[in-house]
Structures are given as structure tokens and as C-alpha cells.
What we know:
The protein is an alpha+beta fold.
Amino acid sequence: MNNTRAQGMSVNIIIIAAIALIILVILVVLVIQSGGDLRTGATDCTVGGGQCYPSWEGCPSGSSPNSLRSCPTDSFNDAQICCMP
């Protein structure tokens, strides 16, 4: 009987390890999918303390354009620039 019990313990450990591996894979996938949002947030103009203006208008006095930060297009589908104070 001791011999069968030891084999049963091995199967339990394998099942627990497989479940843990599946959970780990799910967590990695979730982190990778949210990573895109994190990168976008890091280059967003308003997150960086800037403000978006239409490119034809330019930056107001006292601020300068920042090409490293991104702005969405406006409702007229015109490009915008990021102006930092």
C-alpha cells in the first residue's frame, strides 16, 4: 500500500504544477496585453504635462512643441502637436 500512495502523491504534484503553469501563462498574457497601453501612456502628451493643439495653430507663447509626445487627431481628422510648458 505504501508504494501506491507514493505514486498518487507524484500525480497530485504533477497536476498542481500543471495548474500553476496554466495560471502563470494566463498572467503573462495579461501583462503583455496591458503593456501596449503602458507604452502608449508613457508617450501621451497630456500624461507628460503637455497640451495638444491643432498643428495649423501652433503652440501658444511660453510653450514649445515636443515631438517625442503624441497627440490624437481631432474631430476633423487634422494632426495635432504636443506643446509643453
